[in-house]
Amino acid sequence: MVAASSDLVPHPLDPLSQAEIQSAIDLVKKAHGELFFNVVSLHEPRKAEMTKWLEDPSAPRPTRIADVVVIAPGGKVYDALVDLASNTITKWELLDGLQPIITMEELTAVEHVCRKDPKVIEQCEISGIAKEDMHKVYCDPWTIGFDERHGNKVRLQQALMYYRPNVDDCQYQYPLDFCPIYDGEKKEIIYIDIPKVRRPLSKAEPVNYHPAAVEKVGGYRNNLKPINITQPEGVSFSVTGREVEWQNWKFHIGFNYREGIVLNNITYNDKGNVRPIFYRLSLAEMVVPYGNPEHPHQRKHAFDLGEYGAGYMTNSLALGCDCKGSIHYLDAEFPTRAGGVRTIKNAICIHEEDAGILFKHTDFRDESVIVTRARKLIVQQIFTAANYEYAIQWIFHQDGTIQPEIKLTGILNTYSMDPDEDTKGWGTQVYPGVNAHNHQHLFCLRIDANVDGPNNTVFMADAVPSEAPVGSPENYYGNAFFAKRTKFSTVGESATDYDGATSRTWDICNTNKLHPYSKKPTSYKLVSREVAKLLPKEGSLVWKRAGFARHTVHVTKYRDDELWPAGRHVPQTSGEPSLGLPEWMGDGTESIDNTDVVLWHTFGVTHIPAPEDFPVMPVEPITLLLRPRNFFSNNPVMDVPPSFCSTPSQVAANGAGVTDATDKLSKLAFTNGNGCCTNGTNGTHATNGTS
Amino acid sequence: MVAASSDLVPHPLDPLSQAEIQSAIDLVKKAHGELFFNVVSLHEPRKAEMTKWLEDPSAPRPTRIADVVVIAPGGKVYDALVDLASNTITKWELLDGLQPIITMEELTAVEHVCRKDPKVIEQCEISGIAKEDMHKVYCDPWTIGFDERHGNKVRLQQALMYYRPNVDDCQYQYPLDFCPIYDGEKKEIIYIDIPKVRRPLSKAEPVNYHPAAVEKVGGYRNNLKPINITQPEGVSFSVTGREVEWQNWKFHIGFNYREGIVLNNITYNDKGNVRPIFYRLSLAEMVVPYGNPEHPHQRKHAFDLGEYGAGYMTNSLALGCDCKGSIHYLDAEFPTRAGGVRTIKNAICIHEEDAGILFKHTDFRDESVIVTRARKLIVQQIFTAANYEYAIQWIFHQDGTIQPEIKLTGILNTYSMDPDEDTKGWGTQVYPGVNAHNHQHLFCLRIDANVDGPNNTVFMADAVPSEAPVGSPENYYGNAFFAKRTKFSTVGESATDYDGATSRTWDICNTNKLHPYSKKPTSYKLVSREVAKLLPKEGSLVWKRAGFARHTVHVTKYRDDELWPAGRHVPQTSGEPSLGLPEWMGDGTESIDNTDVVLWHTFGVTHIPAPEDFPVMPVEPITLLLRPRNFFSNNPVMDVPPSFCSTPSQVAANGAGVTDATDKLSKLAFTNGNGCCTNGTNGTHATNGTS
Ligand SMILES: [Co+2]
Ligand SMILES: [Co+2]
């Protein structure tokens, strides 16, 4: 397979190229002078227009439009659209009381200001840090969330303060107890939140994970032998521009500052019939509420996508390190604040992995058997949100399943504590003087469904016992159970929570197309078990701001530009009114029966920290499945070549004609001659394994 | 690493060797004449004795004792013990109203009897099968479960009937509608359950997954390039007898007819301190209830371990097929019914896999970064329970996590239906004429805990909001939440269910040992989200027989021989009284506070079939975690060599001194020259990834 040229006309859903970004910037600058560019990103084609073009390439090609957000001198914020074909600004709108996404450049400015601010220096001295050690003071700049004392007219950040005895130390081990507030327009500290009870800088010995520190306590383990993964004949996927084809799947990979990876036009070639499944899939928002009620910790509830951007924070990935095997990478291009363009090399990686057994069955009568191995295709990005890292994997399986998986790693957000202080259960002392507060990682998966076409209906499915009592004629032995299906006719009905007791799932159905055998609608089933409930209470600040997190599932009717469920501009929103999804749901009466729908799924974990998570966290994965049910006529992977297959007639013929394509590179772990491998000879499927 | 000799004196927990099995059989035969041997298996050493020997190898070595179950002529069943050192029968006990496990030989006998039975032939003719086609009639022999008409004095099986038009066809596509009952003593059919409404044999075209069938409909896909996985320098684990050491883990692998893999004496070497974690881990039982209330389908609720044995049904695994890479295998030895010994080659496989990223963190200030890759060790068996296959993986992670994972594949149990018949929601038509009934796969994980010693206490942990209302001084912004911990003081208190709303977990704690930083007891946390509730109702036949499945968790005080929670002899139990766990729980008042405890965890899925599952099911995985929490002083894997590490001081020095151990065999998927890989050059961690 070869990847084709990328110097074609861009696909309408391709991110803006370097040239396109620059051209939009130049045009805006020409019209409005010097500005800060917070966003210059693809304004996605209207779905109606896009769908026409997808169905008929001779239809007008959707034009390239740039979505631009700028901050003008004086802090005025404008939303703009630039038509790149005609080179015209088609929208220029002043926003009131809204703050655009915070860029990396805005974030990194805060630490430098803090170090020079006399009041911060004073607080550092109170904590026990000498003036001349201010270069050892660090801050993680966070959005302020919402602070009612400061509102949303002034562009603010809060500075979570830390110290490093040595430049290579982990500062999260030395948190400081005060919190400066930074004005991004003035570039100065306007306020400092200081707790009533002061906690001096920790004097504990540093714990670090860098080589010098590891060497000091005994060095690295030397008992890991290499595992080599190679594809000498190349990979099994092809890439044309940003369109990937693999194992009947075809999809386009978009990428934006906000959501990072966006998967578009996901189709599955079902025996020659190219069937649409999802129009657009992305992580659309997330929120990380912290559970310590003491002021000002309520401000710690990051909307990492809406406030900082999974695209803006994405890592440049390295071959053989973040990814192993045969990898294809895609870069990302973003504006700089001043109006240039920056490139993140290898922002996305794409590769295949062996995925164990795809299916197996042995007939116990004669040990005739089939074993077929599975593959998966992984499209991945990793982003760093200050202390935390999130590896986002979109995993495609051969059987039609799509598995979004998120791996949490990085470092806990920490706060200072006195060695004998009671954490009151709001956090855990993970190291002397280090309090890691309880928090949640809640993600919102946006599923723009297209199951066999745009008109879909969502049902809730609960596995429940029959209502008939034990001993009744309908359920004499009491074993009856079934899947109770509840149709969501309106937006209001769709706001539903996970129910572990019924193993609740949700089906995105095309009720216009029944399966020929089961007579059930063709569908994709959302199977998601890591679905921590939003723990901040109803009416709380987080509850108001993160409307999407109130329920596990919400369904809305599709409308262009309803992409991000905490609103288009998230920083410093008060939650009054709640922006995004709660607005779009309206009074809940809108019909979502057999129409173009979007399913919003909130999932994630509650994280009660433990010392094992510190000073750096071993990966914790969160996963869910989108599974075809009543979609394919039967098992869609029977044509994947088996590793081994023998039929009853072949077994009867002493193995003549069996299919043997076992991997010949696999080896016994231990060679003969050391006395172990009397047990180690190879079993064989061709004959009865018992003797 | 080399595997040492296995011809040492056996470890006290090693399964009986071929010679030991034979010697027990010979002794019993000599004393009691010709018998059928259903079980000849290791009678595990008493824990007190075993623990003494583990702690002090100069203590008396636990002797080898065989646990023997036989059926004598006339159907009399005896439980026996044979002391292999003294060659004496130390127990010989006649059982009343109990049936021992059904062997493979007993199972395979049924089909042959069915084919010759005149009444079965008559029923086949009614179904539309000619007398001369009886060799095309097949049956899956199942335990009868419990049928009140037949009780438990007579040893019975039920024969689920199928037909194959051709010997290589999948018989599950051609189910027959009647069900013969087989007497294992008489070796004859004693009754046939015949439905009131008859369903003739399906005339649908066969759907098959063997090569000839695939070739007929277009052939195999030819677009999968090989993925090679090799370990040229060998594996990173060592095996001494049946003891495995890998990445600070050490454990013994037992294996028996019933549970299959048993993991013993699991310890973790924590910086030189060998800490016990689990005394014994196994899948101890399972039940697969079917949800169709129509007679005789209530009998379909297989206890695959107790009634057939995960050991007895285990597959002989093949290199490069079931397992890929560098594999070590262990065989299994079992008695034959007549009193010989059979060997299952490669009953267990052990291998390492790359496991993606272990941890990663980038400092956004300077892009100093660490990326460390993870490994996992997998101990696996696969067993075939008639139509279904279960791949049982015990996955060890470097960070102290143990992850039992079960992969379901194989074929749905099916029943016949008329093409236009209403399944009433109790099943799905997965192919014309094929009704796959709703069912559950519920597994019971037995955790014999030993967290820093035998005296442990179990707590339930629920993530809940503070009770203080929004606006109150204690919870002004409403964001407060914490982990509510409930101690189980008595057996009765421990019977608890999963609660998805609180992301409920269970902690196995050593309350005698507090973590130096968190001040919480050292613990292992059970994190399990696939926890379908038992759907057969309270008081139902399944509920009575599968007492372990009534709740997600039960905890009992450890007692020798309390191993299998549906009882020692499961076939044909009535559930009155409920055997096993309900007996051991007694009146629930026994204290389980700070003592030797066993946690019984029931987990699994409800399976509402869909056509995608037919004629063979793509793997569906079920997984859970046992995670160290407050157990290690901090992240225990910081000494795993990183793939790449740069510190702030190294970044400041332009990369001098960075650790670069990236995998040099990884490659770009597409080479330069085809126009694609302007995007495909390798990112690098050493410099800022943005440009
Ligand atoms: Co966390
Ligand atoms: Co199933």
Please tag this protein with its features:
homodimer; 691 residues; mainly beta; Nuclear Transport Factor 2, Chain: A; Beta-galactosidase, Chain A, domain 5; 3 domains; 21-stranded antiparallel β-sheet; four-stranded antiparallel β-sheet; 34 strands; 39% strand; globular; disordered N terminus; binds cobalt (II) ion
What does this protein structure show overall?
The structure is a homodimer of 691-residue chains. Chain A is mainly beta and 691 residues long. Chain A folds into 3 domains: 18-93, Nuclear Transport Factor 2, Chain: A (Roll); 104-205, Nuclear Transport Factor 2, Chain: A (Roll); 244-467 and 481-629, Beta-galactosidase, Chain A, domain 5 (Distorted Sandwich). In chain A, 11% of the residues lie in helices and 39% in strands. In chain A, the strands form 4 sheets. Chain A has a 21-stranded antiparallel beta sheet that branches. A 4-stranded antiparallel beta sheet of chain A has the order 1-2-3-4. In chain A, a hairpin with a 2-residue loop joins strand 18 and strand 19. Residues 1-6 and 673-691 of chain A have low confidence and may be disordered. Residues 408, 439, 441, 607 of chain B line the site of one cobalt (II) ion (CO).
Q: What's the helix and strand layout?
A:
2 copies of one chain form a homodimer.
Chain A: H1 18-32, E1 36-42, H2 47-55, E2 65-72, E3 76-83, E4 88-95, H3 104-116, H4 118-127, E5 137-143, E6 156-163, E7 179-183, E8 188-193, H5 211-216, E9 228-230, E10 238-240, E11 243-246, E12 249-256, E13 260-270, E14 273-289, E15 301-302, H6 304-308, E16 326-335, E17 341-362, E18 369-385, E19 388-397, E20 402-410, E21 414-416, E22 427-431, E23 434-437, E24 439-449, E25 455-465, E26 481-487, E27 505-514, E28 521-528, H7 541-545, E29 553-557, H8 581-585, E30 595-607, E31 617-629, E32 644-645, H9 648-652, E33 659-660, E34 667-668
Antiparallel strand pairs in A: 1-2, 2-3, 3-4, 5-6, 6-7, 7-8, 10-11, 11-12, 12-13, 13-14, 14-15, 14-24, 16-17, 17-18, 18-19, 18-32, 19-20, 20-31, 21-23, 22-23, 24-30, 25-26, 25-27, 25-30, 27-28, 28-31, 29-30, 32-33
